[in-house]
UniProtKB/TrEMBL annotation:
It comes from Absidia repens. One of its GO terms (biological process) is SRP-dependent cotranslational protein targeting to membrane. Residues 79-123 are annotated as: Disordered. Transmembrane segments: none annotated. InterPro entries: Signal_recog_particle_SRP9/14, SRP9-like, SRP9_dom. SUPFAM superfamilies: Signal recognition particle alu RNA binding heterodimer, SRP9/14. Residues 88-107 have a biased composition (Polar residues). It comes from the Eukaryota. This is Signal recognition particle, SRP9/SRP14 subunit. Residues 110-123 have a biased composition (Basic residues).
Length: 123
């Protein structure tokens, strides 16, 4: 099921990890054609998903990555280095926040060097 609120998704994801840390998988995918980031956390009994196209959610995503990495290593988060936080927006209107940039529409062209037909040494 897709969860629309970030805080609810993060809480549910942490609960899944806490209940079975050895079986939990955390997957993220970026669909460049739609400009969407999809996150999925599952332990084979329960699955939660979150989909966004908002650039402000990227900092939350990075913070959650740091949180999961520290939990997977059985390390406490460093208090001196805070997790990236973004203030909550009062309006869920997608037009209020910037979109995730989409991938480049054209591939970069490689330039080939022309070989010269000059021969070295003369006679």
């Amino acid at each position: 099921m897709y969860i629309t609120n970030w805080d609810d998704f993060q809480k549910a994801a942490e609960d899944i990890f806490t209940s079975s840390p050895d079986n939990t998988r955390y997957v993220h995918a970026f669909h460049g054609s739609q400009g969407e980031l999809v996150l999925k956390v599952t332990n084979d009994q329960m699955i939660v998903k979150y989909k966004t196209n908002q650039a402000t959610d990227l900092k939350k995503f990075i913070g959650m990555n740091e949180l999961f990495m520290s939990k997977m290593q059985n390390k406490a988060m460093d208090i001196d280095e805070p997790v990236a936080e973004v203030p909550a927006t009062t309006s869920p209107n997608p037009a209020d926040s910037p979109q995730i940039p989409q991938g480049a529409s054209t591939a970069s062209k490689s330039s080939k060097k022309k070989k010269s037909n000059k021969k070295k040494g003369g006679k």
